[in-house]
Specification:
With 311 residues, the chain is an alpha/beta fold. Helices cover 36% and strands 22% of the residues. It has two domains: 14-127, no CATH class; 139-181 and 199-310, no CATH class.
Length: 311
């Protein structure tokens, strides 16, 4: 099938799209919550070649009564071609499970007889099934980035979702007011997109066994590194510990996860786990360092990305 379908107008620049569509695209590009995806053990897939789910701007033209209509148009265009795109992604990520949510990026390609075609790429959110090979009963995973059969899960950021959305809206509104001559950032659009992310995540993980009871035999605790020491509101932690990002205009570097997983917050979790579990397994991208709070526990097993501790 040709990339640019017959009868569709060739549009050369995003600014030539209707205002509602233009603003919607530019806004959602800022707030894909890639760090929160990481917390949930999910990832936006990066293509090895091209953009398998490519939407020319001409497919996004039309009249829109509101921003939600424009957003729906984007997802309708994705829906039409996503399965073909998934097949290509599976060549690179054979174990991926695709979720119906996407990171939107600028992209252009060429087609014989048409020349350069401008549009967007839609990079799918996916579960690559990160797991930890342990065979134990009565396991509680305090976090969401690891999959363990028959475990219970405690989602430590669930009650912070509104704050996460508010924090990203605040800094990107500030960024566009300072650095964007068009000042294109609409809180309504960003909020809709971020809430959709959480809705998709909740629907995907509804089969898991969640708990609010932090007691059991084994606690598995995924850790994320952060220079932040104290706990507090996300926006306040950013302003205190990530001042350089503000001063240099590097707003795209802000991650809510780094603000949430500060030293004080982690120590609260570790203290609860130490008091209420017989074993603690710390997991991170690299082999975790045993915190001072747990130094009196015995190391009974270690791996490339985990340490198992016991009383």
């Amino acid at each position: 099938m040709p990339i640019l379908r017959r009868g569709k107008e060739k549009i050369y620049h995003i600014d030539h799209l209707p205002e509602k569509m233009r603003v919607t695209l530019k806004t959602v590009m800022d707030v894909n919550l890639h760090d929160i995806a990481k917390y949930y053990g999910l990832k936006y897939l990066t293509p090895r070649v091209g953009e398998p789910i490519f939407i020319p701007y001409g497919e996004l033209n039309g009249k829109f009564n509101n921003y939600e209509d424009a957003f729906d148009k984007i997802y309708e265009a994705i829906e039409e071609i996503k399965n073909e795109g998934y097949e290509e992604y599976k060549q690179w990520y054979p174990n991926a499970v695709f979720l119906d949510h996407y990171r939107i990026v600028f992209y252009s390609t060429t087609e014989y007889g048409e020349g350069v075609i401008y549009g967007i790429g839609a990079e799918p959110l996916a579960d690559l099934k990160p797991s930890l090979d342990i065979n134990k009963d009565d396991v509680v995973v305090i976090g969401m980035s690891i999959r363990i059969p028959n475990a219970k899960y405690y989602d430590v950021i669930r009650n912070k979702r509104d704050e996460i959305i508010e924090a990203y809206n605040q800094i990107y509104s500030e960024f566009h007011a300072k650095y964007d001559k068009d000042k294109v950032y609409v809180v309504e659009v960003a909020t809709y997109y971020m809430k959709k992310f959480f809705d998709v995540v909740d629907d995907y993980f509804k089969i898991l066994n969640f708990t609010n009871n932090l007691k059991g035999r084994t606690a598995v605790i995924p850790l994320f590194s952060s220079p932040a020491k104290r706990d507090g509101k996300i926006i306040d932690i950013w302003r205190e510990y990530f001042k350089d990002y503000f001063e240099e205009g590097n707003y795209y570097k802000f991650e809510a996860l780094q603000a949430i997983y500060n030293e004080e917050f982690i120590n609260k979790i570790l203290s609860l786990a130490k008091d209420n579990f017989e074993e603690i397994i710390l997991v991170s991208e690299k082999k975790p360092r045993v915190p001072d709070l747990l130094k009196d526990l015995k190391i009974i097993k270690e791996g490339e990305n985990y340490v198992m501790l016991s009383r």
